[in-house]
Amino acid sequence: MKEELYNDGKWRLIRETADLPDGRTKTAVRGYRSDTVHILAFHEGKVLLLREYRPFHGEWVWMLPSGHVDKENDPLEAAKRELREETGFHANDMAHYCSAKHSETFGSVNHFYVANDLVHDPLPQDDDELIEVHELSLKLAKEPPFTA
């Protein structure tokens, strides 16, 4: 059984019932949105990290170049676009690393890529983003807690 509770074109909430192997059933509200991509990008021996202002958090956060698979159906193409939009580089070598699901109640997959051999080739950033690109040594990027 599926009952749609909400749909704005980007997010869908559905109440679903699924069978368990022992004959019982489980009901849950599941959220759906586009998959996301995350890129580990390496340039001249350094890793690219983003420092982005997140207005709903009210602070700057550190993150990998990331985004939604919403303008294309192919996660690799989305990763290439997001890398160019958020860092100003394209990768001559980009490989899929792994994919992971969030949880049983959130229908979205995170796709991770490794990008090497970067060339400056920017696309405009989204109008509602405030992003700084930082190139950090691997040693600094691995130091807990990360506070560069």
State the order of secondary-structure elements, H for helix, E for strand: EEEEEEEHEEEH
Count helical runs: 2
Radius of gyration: 18 Å
Q: What percent of residues adopt helix (DSSP H or I)?
A: 10-25%
Strand content: over 45%
Descriptive report:
- The protein is mainly beta.
- It contains two helices and ten strands; from the N terminus they run βββββββαβββα.
- Strands 1, 2, 3, 4, 5, 6, 7, 8, 9 and 10 form a ten-stranded mixed sheet that branches.
- The mean pLDDT is 93.
Based on the model shown, name its key terms.
2 helices, 10-stranded mixed sheet, mainly beta, 148 residues
Fold blueprint:
Layout: E1 2-7, E2 12-19, E3 25-32, E4 36-43, E5 46-54, E6 59-63, E7 66-68, H1 75-87, E8 89-103, E9 106-120, E10 131-137, H2 138-142
Parallel strand pairs: 3-9, 4-9
Antiparallel strand pairs: 1-2, 2-3, 4-5, 4-7, 5-6, 5-10, 8-9
